[in-house]
């Protein structure tokens, strides 16, 4: 009788000790609560940059089909930037348990719904879409988020932000964006 009681007590104690291991608790927290390993700012920046990049690829593909030589050139540069950014962003997201790719991103001009009826004014606006201006604005938003990522507390996020900020700044000037003068107060 004592042997059975000691055996059951040992099993209970063993299972209690293994369930309290820090790594197991951390893994279960991440698995069951959808928590990430980055702070809220980095989470939001990763989501914003990821959404902009995924949507930006679709816009670039649309602009490449437009026939405008300047838009096609800029679209290929923007698409190349986003193509190299997305795998690194995916790796950063995986390491830090951030959900990526983002589900439900807006589909922009990359895909068109053939079943929808579109009036003539919407078609005219669609044909006169200024991709160059749109790409400059899009890259400036990405630059701002990457600049903020360089000041994050997570070292991986900082390194990603620094590396990609240099590339985004170069692209921004190549596509005609004007770098702002650094004003100190």
From TrEMBL:
> What is the protein name stated in its UniProt record?
DUF4142 domain-containing protein
Could you tell me which species this protein originates from?
A: Sphingobacterium bovistauri
């Amino acid at each position: 009788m004592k042997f059975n009681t000691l055996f059951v007590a040992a099993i209970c104690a063993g299972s209690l000790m293994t369930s309290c291991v820090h790594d197991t608790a951390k893994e279960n927290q991440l698995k069951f609560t959808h928590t990430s390993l980055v702070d809220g700012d980095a989470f939001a920046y990763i989501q914003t940059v990821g959404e902009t990049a995924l949507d930006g690829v679709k816009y670039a593909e649309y602009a490449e089909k437009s026939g405008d030589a300047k838009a096609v050139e800029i679209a290929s540069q923007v698409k190349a930037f986003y193509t190299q950014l997305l795998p690194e962003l995916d790796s950063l997201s995986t390491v830090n348990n951030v959900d990526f790719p983002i589900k439900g991103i807006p589909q922009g001009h990359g895909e068109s719904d053939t079943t929808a009826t579109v009036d003539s004014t919407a078609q005219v606006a669609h044909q006169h879409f200024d991709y160059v201006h749109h790409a400059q604005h899009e890259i400036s938003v990405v630059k701002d988020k990457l600049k903020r990522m360089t000041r994050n507390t997570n070292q991986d996020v900082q390194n990603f932000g620094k590396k990609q900020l240099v590339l985004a700044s170069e692209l921004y000037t190549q596509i005609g964006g004007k770098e702002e003068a650094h004003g100190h107060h």
